[in-house]
Amino acid sequence: MSPTTIFVIGIIAAAVLASAGVFVVAARREPSAGPITGDLEEAARRGEAEARRAAEAGGGDTGTVATLVREDEDTAPDAEVVAAPDDLAPAPADAAPPPGPDPLLEREEISRAEYAATRRKFLNRAVLGLFGGAFLGGQALAYLAFLWPKLRGGFGTPINAGTLVDIRREISGEVIVPKFVAAAQAWIVPFDPTQLPGSSFEGLPVVAGGGGGEVGLMALWQRCVHLGCRVPECVPSQGFECPCHGSRYNFHGEYEAGPAPRNLDRFEVDVSETGDLIVNTGAIFQTARAKKKTIPYPQGPSCI
Fold first, then answer.
1. How far apart are CA 165 and CA 144, in angstroms?
2. Which of 117, 167, 271, 301 registers the highest number of CB atoms within 10 A of its CB?
3. DSSP-assigned letters across all residues of 210-255
4. Closest CA to 70 of 62, 79, 61, 78
5. Where are the chain's structural domains?
6. How far apart are CA 172 and CA 210, in angstroms?
7. Mean pLDDT calculated for residue range 154-176
8. What percent of the chain has pLDDT over 90?
């Protein structure tokens, strides 16, 4: 399954999960039976109780009988005192009106499920679900597709450099002209298999296609082993010369001069059943500076 297919499937799955989450949250929400109230804190309840007690204590005795006395000149000391009815008795100046109904006592309790599923919370959860499921999920799948290794081609996998016949025709002759294979980041150079014994490459699978009077082929990594600069070929001197810091190698990648610590790195090579040169860029071999050189350098003027 290709990374593109995995990415598309992931996007569809994230959208389905987000839609299912919104549907489940909406289905669990029940209609509200009245105003939504939550639990009061303990301090608030004590304050309400003290306020009610203070109001009841300040009201006084509303059933006290008051007396009215006629104040005129003809009033006798033993004049009759008439009691005023209760509805005519003046209320004390500091009397407070009787307390009304307590809304806290008349509130209707609701369940925790009804209290939790408010409209605002529903919308918040829906937005977070869509954002987390669709957007973040899509971003995660995009990053995964970007970082997923490409195992079907590219550097790090076997690269077909072309047929042996064509490559030999391009690079062999009195003057060697290396063939550059961009997909493999490699220089293809000729190498006589009879020179392998005693060289730095003896016992390594770095030469292919030799024997029967035919020259073998070797694939050198274009990367300088000093600081990683790209090393171009120099046909006049018959070698590779790094323009960054002056490291020099012959056309077999053997160290000649400069700050490089070793020979150029090289890839494993093989010949396919159809006669093609296969450069395995996932298998890289490092070799120390050669004590026995397999090709002379320089053979002409330097390029740097």
1. 42
2. 167
3. -BTTBPEEEEEESB-TTT--B--EETTTTEEE-TTT--EEETT--E
4. 79
5. 3-37+108-147, 158-285
6. 13
7. 90
8. 43
How many helices and strands (H and E) does the chain possess? 7, 12
Helix, strand, or coil (residue 5): helix
Contact partners, residue 301, CB within 8 Å, separation at least 6: 236, 237
β-sheet bridge partners, residue 221: 186
Give the residue with greater pLDDT, 82 vs 53. Answer: 53
C-alpha to C-alpha distance for 40 and 249, rounded to whole angstroms: 85
Contact between residue 231 and residue 293 where contact means Cβ atoms under 8 Å apart: no
Place of tokens 């994230």: 14
| Per-residue confidence (pLDDT) for residue 151, from 0 to 100 | 55
Average pLDDT score over the chain: 79
CA–CA gap between residue 264 and residue 289 (Å, rounded): 9
Residues 158-285, CATH architecture:
3-layer Sandwich (2.102)
